[in-house]
Amino acid sequence: RSEGRYKLGDYLGTIEDCSQSIKSESDIVRAYFFRASARNELGNYQEAIDDCDLAIYRYQDKPKYVKGQYFERLLSLRSQLTR
Predict the structure, then answer these.
(1) 2-38 as b/e, with b when 16 or more CB fall inside 10 Å?
(2) First and final CA of the chain: distance in angstroms?
(3) What is the DSSP string of the chain?
(4) Are the beta carbons of 54 and 19 closer than 8 angstroms?
């Protein structure tokens, strides 16, 4: 649902959905990616950076099947953001 909201430009709704997913530990890397992306779109750059850094820290040593396809996208987003 968060991905659909993101694609529609509902960034606040995306952040809300992703925050709930993160709390329930459901597909966390994907949730961090879309929440960071939405925050970036809203100009909340530090929050986007924090989301990326936290997810990278938590998942960098996990096997690829645990990280999922969004980990590489998260790394790419983080490389575009500056402090």
Answers:
(1) bbebbeeeebebbbebbeebbeeeebbbbbbbbbbbb
(2) 29
(3) -HHHHHHTT-HHHHHHHHHHHHHTTSSHHHHHHHHHHHHHHTT-HHHHHHHHHHHHHHHTTS-HHHH-THHHHHHHHHHH---
(4) no
What's the one-letter identity of residue 62?
A: K
Contact (Cβ atoms closer than 8 angstroms) between residue 39 and residue 17: no
Band (pLDDT 50/70/90 cuts) for residue 16 is very high
Q: What is the pTM of this model?
A: 0.85
Where does the pLDDT of residue 83 fall: very low under 50, low under 70, confident under 90, or very high at 90 and above?
A: low
Give the pLDDT confidence score for residue 39 in this predicted structure.
Answer: 97
